[in-house]
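Z., the sequence and structure:
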Amino acid sequence: MDVEVEKKGKVYTVIINRPEVKNAIDYRTSVLLAEAFRDFDADDGLCAAVLWGAGGTFCAGADLKALAEDPMQEAKRLNEDISADAPLGPTRMTLSKPVIAAISGYCVAGGLELAVWCDLRGAEEDAVLGIFERRFGVPLIDGGTQRLPRLIGMSHALDMILTGRPVGAREASSMGLVNRVVAKGKVREAAEDLAEQLCEFPQVCMRSDREALYGGFDLEMGKALELEYRLGMRVLESGETLSGASRFTKGSGKHGQF
């Protein structure tokens, strides 16, 4: 299968399995990716997901060879209905649970757009990120021009978008584009370990705070604070906070212990 999924406890790993084309995404693969993340979000037994590319490459973006060979098939992804799935599959989705990108090798073009769609990004020390499609006149249409500056600021984003230059993992970390840098060959393991940690937290509260961040990002401050408060009250009403306070009084988590 071009897209595979593996479940381990509450963690759901989505694997792009097209190493022969550096995990480039054709139309069929985009459909499978969207289906995989839709299944993840609908499954109450899952709390966090990891997106990883098999064979040492995260994703090289859209499959331009497939586009050149079968333009009619590939044109199916260019749906003018913005409510439909995106050209790469899930990048218009707003999920209720976090996704972590596990980046090895090249994370370029649409692959970078997939990575910035995720909530967090880990990268192996020799990973390369970039807007490589700059050379071929392929536009960013999977959220890259919107999510990248929100993550790293307009100056860094313009540098990457206008020049298309390669950015190593360490530089990406200094920009805030990558959250963790790990040894070569270790990023999937590290991302799944991090996902397991997220799964251990009280889920109503974690997801609510995540929703408040995304929902309030572009709101006027007063409206954003109102949203944060309203969502926070929903958490308090769920009983999850009271349960956590009770555990704290019994000694759990004191002195910053996780």
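The CA atoms of residues 67 and 75 lie 8 Å apart. Residues 221-238 form the longest helix (18 residues).

Let me know what you think.
H.
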